[in-house]
Amino acid sequence: MANITADLTPSKADTRLTTADGKPLKAALAAAQSHAKRRAFFLVLPLLLFILVTFVLPIGQMLHQSMYNPGFTLHQDVISKVKTPIMVNVRNWFDTNPPGSEPDEAAYAALAKDFLLLDELRAAGSVGTRVNYDLSGTRSLFTKTARKADKLEPPYKAALLEVDEKWANPEVWAVMRGASSAYTINFYLAAADLTRDVNGEIASVPDNRALYVKLFIRTLLLSVLITFLTFILAYPVAHLLATLPLRYSNLLMIFVLLPFWTSLLVRTTSWMVLLQSQGVINNALVASGALADDNRIQMMYNQTGTVIAMTHILLPFMILPLYSVMRPINPSYVRAARSLGATSWTAFRRIYFPQTIPGIGAGALLVFILAVGYYITPALVGGADGQLISNLIAFHMTRSLNWSMAAALASILLGGILILYWLYDRLIGIDNLKLG
Amino acid sequence: MKLKTILLSTALGGVAFGVAAQEVTVMSWGGAYTKSQVEAYHKPFTTETGIKVNSVDADNPATPIKAQVEAGNVTVDVADVEYSDAIRLCDEGLLEVIDLSILPPAPDGTPASEDFIEGALSDCAVASIVWSTIYAYNTRNVDGSPTTMADFFDVGKFPGKRGLRKSAKANLEMALMADGVPASGVYALLETDEGVDRAFDKLDTIKNDVVWWEAGAQPPQLLADGEVVMSTAYNGRIFNAAVGEGQPFEVVWDGQILDFDLFVVPRGAPNKEEALKFIAFSTDTQRLADQAAWISYGPARKSSGEKVGLFNDGKTEMAPHMPTAKANLTNALVNNFEFWVDRDAELNERFNAWLAQ
Amino acid sequence: MALPKHADRLERIWHYIYLAICVLIFLFLIAPILIVIPLSFNAEPYFTFTEKMLSFDPTGYSLRWYDLLLTFGMADATAPRDGSWWSDVWANSAWIGAARNSFIIGFFSTILATCLGTLAALGLSRPEMPFRRAIMAILISPMIVPIIITATGLFFFYSATGLANSYVGIVMAHATLGIPFVIITVTATLVGFDHSLTRAAASLGANPTTTFFKITMPLILPGVISGALFAFVTSFDEVVVVLFIAAHDQQTIPRQMWNGIREQISPAILSVATILVFVSIALLATVEVLRRRSERLRGISPN
């Protein structure tokens, strides 16, 4: 279509060209083209809507969750779904007093009043949990105070300090002020091992609680290592497959495709069987006398296990793009270089290798993207130090139930992946992705 | 699209929800423990009432039911949780309040409120068993015999990997006891920052030798496979592997940490009435005693005590294997639920940061 | 890759080293998958070769773990194996139930993914498709975005819309994950598709529907089927989304395996793994046959 319109451009001035029923040809063509466009688009539309609903929307909601946590402002009953605003009085006090104000008797009175409602709604736990996200060790302060809420008498400051002297801590008040808005970037701060100090300034968390930055770095380093290992292993194999006659290479290709088609859990299980300290490899080494029985190598429940298993699992994703780039390379170039006196190493380095770089790029990017987000394998063979950022997202989703934190971590990871994905699309083109 | 969804849901619905008989879904801890409940509670319950019991497992049921209630899609009717979790979930309004008058009295007429051991009943929860976290070793892989909590932390004296539960609870207490703190002083010390630091320092000494477990069925497996030489574990799992399956495991009772397991009903449970029926049925004197024939956990009713007899192999006397047996209580710690209700989130956060370091 | 006649000694040595390295890498690829097969016949509950197995003593091998797949979860496994025993297996066996769920979910999500995906691929491969690149990027993204992120998003979304714990929810999620594979394989088949064929059909009086079913469909069918197989495998192998959004009694094979691995890797897991390896061999063979057929149809032949 594009060609036809291009051909017609010179005839722009020529108004005599019409279709049989007298319409200008240009208009008729444009109409036909937009009709074709619409037809093509309508074919895609159902799927696009489906993906928007089952994929884009949920991810959008997750992004929202990472910035929105109404734990301090709204209580929803789990059965009736009735929403009750909570901590109203304290939030009013925050609105009328600037940050950094010393909490006065009015503030404590507001707090005591709010606690009566919390006790009635049984909401102290969730409010405390919300505050605890920003200031560790405060959850109990809320549950404890709520239990005694109906016994609080003026003067409230003294009464509350009687319950727990933490109520005098300016940090608690600063954090409550921060939580009094449901929209917050604090979860992103926490994901960068940052927190807010008494004055609301950003500061780093103490060393013994720093976790996420280290894990992001570890995830990146392990992914780079795995990408590199898959490259080292994939290159010779892809080269062999590309240079053998198709009859043989199709046969050998089974070795690459079978792992690709085999369940991830099966492959992970196999590695567990192989790597255990009473597993096949260790037993073979012990039986052959290479290893003392009490000196078995620990290859599982640590980083080694994660790296070995993931390298194996991701290897086909490196071999296939390399192969598809290497196959069409004309061997006569290398032969020409050799005949001109290049050594086989020089011919490889200067002639063959540069032609395979697009394949290396495609494979490396694909493997890296997949590795960064891996969950199952590290969870099963990673032990404590072989965990990746995905495992922490799962931890916050299913164990600590700090869903906003999980969403924030996932959003950061997603951001990184999307940049890589965009890069992949720019450099290689997403429609060049091939399977098998 | 919409039509398709409807068609799809009808088609699938036909498969999934074809039978709408009365049923109740019970969530527990898996492995030998779930099996003991199936044998002692679920099967007789179905026989007597005709209500089908679906048994589902989780590493720690407190977490999934909290997630379910908060997300508003509850599928579990009864869950088996630890004491501190029961109190905490109840505090947060995530559990149904249980009317304790539904519980049957003891055979001699003692009302339930007096028949249960102290602390076994609370607003939202009814205890079924007393269990404990102990450590055990595989006699095949350990030279000599460890006897104290300190031995567990002594990789010089007893070399080899250790298995520990991947959470702060129990590990911190054990670390302090191994460091010479008497059981009675553990929680007072843990209330202080120095105490927590000291516990983590002690854990640091074996950190590189630890294989972490999450599900209660893992420790016996890790011990049997030789992946670890000693592991902390729920005492009943070790008993079942040792006596039931003949594994060469030995339990060390020094420094054991006692806790209750309680039945709770999550708020919004789809079959609340059946759930309450199930709890009342399962925690009567005879059922609790029956359970002890399947796993070495102590019944939460006093009247069940004398009915506890032999293991289901027909020859092993259960009494000495119970965590509450006199000989096992010399240096025992009772889990301080109040401490963990308040500090669980915070200490686990620190624990995870520590793990990743 | 033949060694040229004029290769010198060093090159010869290097060539054999290179071949040896390749053999080792192939071994690395395939050995872990094959190792589970003999181990699944172990008579002992170990994950390693016992002496009896190594000396090919028949008593070292048994089918007990395959038997356990049937009996695990049964009401009365020790009953005589008559009709009622088998109906007990069908009704209560944990693995059979999981397999049933896996097939149902896999079947419906494959249908959904294949229908929507093929339709979209037809649109995407038309040259006049607007915003082609951007839309393609969106449609492929479920394959690129880490599954844990997708599962997290779905958890929030399904909890809010009431789709959590329902089979419909799982089917929709799995269809989403399978769609990129359908799109990739079907568009690959449509590359080089001769559009004059459809035009010829149209000019001979066939309406678009007839043209599609008589001309287009037979030509792209191999691509559609291999896309469908990919979608099915994706669903059949998926565990993270199921862990996040399914109810606890909605077991699938991978989920049952996940539980089994984490709790106790008894050789029963290995027998499931063995069965799954054979399933993947069958699927791979099917895809290979289809690919060759498609190449033949389109006139691209190997050799």
Task: Give the helix/strand layout.
The complex is a heterotrimer of chains A (436), B (357) and C (303).
Chain A: H1 2-8, H2 25-67, E1 74-76, E2 83-85, H3 88-96, H4 105-121, H5 124-134, H6 139-147, H7 156-163, H8 170-179, H9 186-191, E3 194-196, E4 202-204, H10 212-243, H11 246-261, H12 264-275, H13 280-287, H14 303-326, H15 331-339, H16 344-372, H17 376-381, H18 389-398, H19 403-427
Chain B: H1 2-16, E1 23-28, H2 31-49, E2 52-57, H3 62-71, E3 78-82, H4 83-91, H5 112-115, E4 121-122, E5 125-138, H6 149-152, E6 162-165, H7 171-178, H8 186-190, H9 193-204, E7 210-213, H10 218-225, E8 230-234, H11 235-244, E9 249-264, H12 272-282, H13 285-291, E10 298-299, H14 302-305, E11 333-334, H15 337-356
Parallel strand pairs in B: 1-2, 1-3, 6-7, 6-8, 9-11
Antiparallel strand pairs in B: 3-9, 4-5, 5-8, 5-9, 5-10
Helix pairs in contact in B: 2-13, 4-15, 7-9
Chain C: H1 9-39, H2 51-54, H3 64-71, H4 83-92, H5 94-124, H6 132-144, H7 147-161, H8 167-190, H9 195-203, H10 208-237, H11 240-245, H12 253-263, H13 267-297
Helix pairs in contact in C: 1-13, 3-13, 5-8, 5-10, 5-12, 6-8, 8-10, 9-10, 10-13
Description:
The complex is a heterotrimer of chains A (436), B (357) and C (303). Chain A is mostly helical. Chain A has three domains: 2-67; 71-209, no CATH class; 212-282 and 296-432, MetI-like fold, CATH 1.10.3720. Chain A contains 19 helices and four strands. Chain A has a two-stranded antiparallel sheet. A two-stranded antiparallel ribbon of chain A has the order 3-4. Chain A is extended. Chain B has helices spanning 2-16, 31-49, 62-71, 83-91, 112-115, 149-152, 171-178, 186-190, 193-204, 218-225, 235-244, 272-282, 285-291, 302-305, 337-356, and strands at residues 23-28, 52-57, 78-82, 121-122, 125-138, 162-165, 210-213, 230-234, 249-264, 298-299, 333-334. Chain B contains 15 helices and eleven strands. In chain B, strands 1, 2, 3, 4, 5, 6, 7, 8, 9, 10 and 11 form an eleven-stranded mixed β-sheet that branches. In chain B, α2 packs antiparallel against α13, α4 (83-91) crosses α15 (337-356) and α7 crosses α9. By secondary structure, chain B is α/β, with parallel strands linked by helices. Chain B folds into two domains: 22-130 and 261-321, D-Maltodextrin-Binding Protein, domain 2; 132-258 and 324-356, 3-Layer(aba) Sandwich (D-Maltodextrin-Binding Protein, domain 2), CATH 3.40.190.10. Chain B is globular, with a radius of gyration of 21 Å. The longest helix of chain B has 20 residues, at 337-356. In chain C, α6 (132-144) packs across α8 and α9 packs antiparallel against α10 (208-237). The longest helix of chain C is centred in the N-terminal third of the chain and has 31 residues, at 9-39. Chain C is globular, with a radius of gyration of 25 Å. The model of chain C has no long low-confidence stretch (mean pLDDT 87). Chains A and C meet through α2, α10, α11, α12 and α14 of A and α1, α5, α6, α7 and α8 of C.
